[in-house]
Amino acid sequence: MTALTTARDRLTGLVRSQQRRYEGDKDLPLRGYAITLTVYSSVVGSLAGIAWLTGREVPDSLPVKDVAMSALATEKLSRLLTKDPVTSPLRVPFASYEGTAGPAELEEQARGNGARKSLGELITCPFCASVWIATGFTAGLVYLPKTTRLAVGTLAALAAADMLQFTRAWLLKVSS
Fold first, then answer.
1. pLDDT tens sequence across 100-134
2. Residue 105 forms beta bridges with which residues?
């Protein structure tokens, strides 16, 4: 056995031992999480590298209006992708239906093991998806600001409309 093979085997054993200690009796897809982190870091690194290589100006900060609109749009798109019945076909390979979770929202559970389970968790969790979505909107503001602002504005209007719908329903409920 070569020294490289021995070092690899020791490192693999150490990683597996740490994983077992961390997980306890839980079934956590740590390898899938590591892959997800690697993909996310690669996407962010690539976006930054492309900006640098092309000489694209990256702002020191975002205007408050862009941040506020992106926050509303991120919330709306994350819920559309992770909870809406219409987008459930996208989640079928990675999740199982559990029931309804509220008005026009489904409750689903990630299924499978490893990368499949971690991807299932990502696409059934609006908080998890928000990281990717907000990153996409921020990149869009750097690379395609007009198009991104149009999409963000549309999604922000939908988020505001949802809040008005919920407020109306609540007012009707308390007034009767």
1. 998 889 999 999 988 899 999 999 999 999 999 99
2. 102
Return the biggest CA–CA distance within the chain. Answer: 79
Q: Which long-range contacts (CB under 8 A, 24 or more apart) does 88-94 make?
A: 90/123, 91/120, 91/123, 91/124, 94/119, 94/120, 94/123, 94/124
How many CB atoms within 10 Å of residue 75?
A: 20
Distances, alpha carbon 89 to alpha carbons 93, 109, 155, in Å: 8, 14, 21
SS3 113: coil
Strand partners, 110: 95
Cα–Cα distance for residue pair 40/149, rounded to 1 Å: 23
